[in-house]
Amino acid sequence: MKDILRNIPPVHELQKHHLFILLGKKYNLDETVLTSIIRQVLDAVRNTVKSGQHINKDLNSFIWDEIEEIAKAKNKPSLLPVINATGTILHTNLGRSRLSREAIDRVVEVAENYSNLEFDIISGKRGSRHDIVEDLIKEVTGAEAAMVVNNNAAAVFFILNAFGKGKEVIVSRGQLVEIGGSFRISSIMEESGAKLVEVGTTNKTHLKDYEEALTDGTSMVLKVHTSNFKIVGFTQDVSTQQLVDLKKFQDNLIVYEDLGSGVLFDFTEAGIGEEPVVQKVLETGVDIVSFSGDKLLGGPQAGIIAGKKQYIDQLKKHQLARVLRVDKMSFAALEGTLQAYANNKAKDIPAVRDMLLTIEEVRERATVFLYSVTSLMMFQWELVEDESMVGGGTMPEVKIPSIAIRVQADTLSSQNLADELRKGTPSVVVRLQDQHVILDFRTITQGEIPKLVEAFRKIELTYRD
Fold this sequence. Notes:
Number of domains: 3
Strand content: 15-25%
Low-confidence stretches: none
Number of helices: 19
Structural class: alpha/beta
Distance between the termini: 38 Å
CATH class of the largest domain: Alpha Beta
CATH architecture of the largest domain: 3-Layer(aba) Sandwich
Number of strands: 16
Radius of gyration: 28 Å
Shape: globular
């Protein structure tokens, strides 16, 4: 052990080695950073030797290999592009909505330049970031006013805190949902300082339940769209319009609906789901609605608040407006997304486009892929009918007919094949079903097909010998 420890080269000796300069150039690392990596590796080698573990190769080669591995990983980003072959369009773990080309271009343009984020170009005076997309939101929703915060959970908290703190807020028991990450409406309400008043039962709530719960201490009636689950069978719900009619019983009662997904394109016209369209909900006379930017809307993460001007103006002046505000790149992406709706080009938005793809269009993508992998003999391919999911906590009961390719490998189990695809570059995330790898082509773009082919080619080159 002592002989091995004595043979570990000192830092200054490794700094003089030709590989020191070579690795610095190869991975764009300066001398200070590379020296820090060397010290890290030498400490690890000493600990390995002292623990009695054997190094089964030349010591110097081992040290330089370890240095290169760390140098290679040093500048590798943590947030990486992924090919989504699962068929889940709004995959929460994979970043939900893909942005449209226009939204991406807007982000790049704004990111690489100074911008008028809080500057009024006409007057030359300080402006407000609340103005950036407000007119667009008003145009596509019909709202009197609007503002944006960093996500819809923040919007819910913000509205409840601003208008319900220390006061009663009535909610149906059937709408006390839990969203991703164990965030519950009841918990958000508690944190906001509002007093939860539950009415009805899990499956049935009647208008009279709300009427009987109204008191002088009631500030708001909250309706939560249950976008991530559906109760069927013996059920009863109260419409938004009926809740708006409660305002005749009490002055200053606010009716707020958390729409969750934020639908601006009526998917019911294409026979997909029953999601309420923001425009139609606002037509009922509801005071405030909120919804997500990165779900069915198809934009960046954001919480959009729209409704009557008197309430939106109060929110803009609230102290939490600064705490929850959105950055310039999110505004740029949201503006690019909303512009598509304003110009009747919603189908240019990837989330909308992928949901509306015909079965023939999906089959064409899968067929192009099949023709491209005929030379890969390690795999067996089978074109099959499939069902895609919307995902993102929306339309839980909706399944969209799709086309997939079922894959098996000669020398790898389905799980091992899925692991290899996931760990590759680019990472390919698949679905496992009945001991097969499933590639659903509803969520694989034409541009991703060559990359997907290359992913399988790399695996064959690794395992065929």
